[in-house]
Backbone:
């Protein structure tokens, strides 16, 4: 009886595995259908405002509650590839397998599936980057929503934001590594480090709120002369904040602030451009801006997007995008300071 039960159990398990495998293969395209729409969203906005195409060396890792999909043969090494979503002129080979609550990243690290989205390099100084993000069902099952944008628009925006980082991470990653060597080790280098350091300083928070408001006054002005005047005032307030608070052990924050305003601001700007695009979400500008500002929860994002909204009114996107996606990237504050002279 014992042997019989074991054999029966083995047959049931084998049968389930075979059926599961067939379902995985059958539903490959269905599982990744939304990813193609995310890729299309990038192409829609990038052809209007920048010349940058997909970097040659980006591996993708997407997952839901049970499966992981990837273009990386490190993440998935023992499955047959299939043709799936791709960028124009880029035919990507994808792999899929159950993740059993552990996902191997292209850099060899293991993570537990959770709400996340990020871009990174395989190792320090490497040109090989990778991108990680859950598929929509995972976000929805976790209860994530957006009253302003709707969950589907929010996820497109998150993809655009983080994919933007995948085009910057090699150059900016080198700057981050240098910054890590200079800083006080009380705080880890993150895109929210300035907020983390000064969150309990009421005087700083008040000054920062005034500064952000000044930049938005410039960004939302329809008069070029008034916009330039308000921009110059805002830049003075910005410099005063740096000189007053970023001293002694925190002088490294001057560089960090400019870097993260650039990275986070551009990520949110790309999200904003798609949200108002006629072939994108086609939302009213005020609603889209409210969504990307996120109520000021992440200050580098809220202030950063204002800086790029100012820049887009002073220069065409194809004239300035190379400054932030090129081989020698600039920071948004320095670019605006040059334009304000």
Residues:
């Amino acid at each position: 009886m014992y042997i019989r039960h074991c054999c029966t159990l083995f047959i049931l398990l084998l049968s389930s595995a075979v059926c599961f495998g067939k379902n995985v293969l059958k539903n490959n395209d269905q599982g990744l259908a939304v990813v193609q729409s995310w890729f299309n969203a990038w192409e829609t906005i990038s052809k209007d405002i920048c010349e940058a195409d997909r970097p040659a060396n980006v591996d993708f890792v997407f997952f839901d509650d049970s499966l992981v999909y990837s273009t990386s043969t490190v993440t998935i090494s023992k499955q047959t590839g299939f043709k799936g979503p791709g960028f124009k002129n880029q035919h990507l080979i994808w792999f899929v397998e159950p993740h059993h609550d552990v996902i191997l990243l292209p850099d060899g690290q293991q993570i537990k599936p959770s709400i996340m989205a990020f871009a990174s390099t395989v190792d320090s100084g490497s040109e090989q980057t990778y991108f990680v993000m859950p598929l929509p069902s995972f976000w929805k099952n976790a209860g994530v929503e957006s009253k302003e944008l709707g969950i589907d628009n929010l996820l497109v925006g998150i993809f655009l934001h983080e994919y933007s980082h995948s085009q910057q991470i090699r150059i900016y990653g080198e700057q981050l590594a240098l910054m890590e060597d200079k800083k006080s080790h009380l705080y880890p280098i993150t895109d929210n480090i300035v907020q983390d350091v000064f969150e309990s300083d009421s005087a700083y928070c008040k000054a920062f709120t005034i500064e952000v408001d000044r930049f938005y006054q410039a960004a939302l002005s329809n008069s070029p002369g008034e916009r330039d005047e308000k921009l110059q005032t805002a830049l003075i307030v910005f410099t005063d904040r740096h000189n007053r608070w970023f001293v002694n052990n925190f002088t490294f924050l001057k560089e960090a602030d400019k870097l993260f305003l650039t990275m986070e601001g551009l990520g949110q700007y790309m999200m904003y451009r798609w949200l108002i695009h006629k072939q994108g979400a086609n939302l009213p500008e005020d609603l889209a801006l409210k969504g990307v500002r996120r109520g000021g929860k992440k200050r580098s994002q809220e202030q950063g997007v204002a800086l790029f909204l100012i820049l887009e009114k002073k220069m065409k996107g194809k004239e300035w995008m190379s400054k932030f996606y090129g081989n020698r990237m600039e920071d948004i504050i320095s670019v605006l300071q040059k334009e304000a002279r």
Summary: Residues 24-150 form one domain.
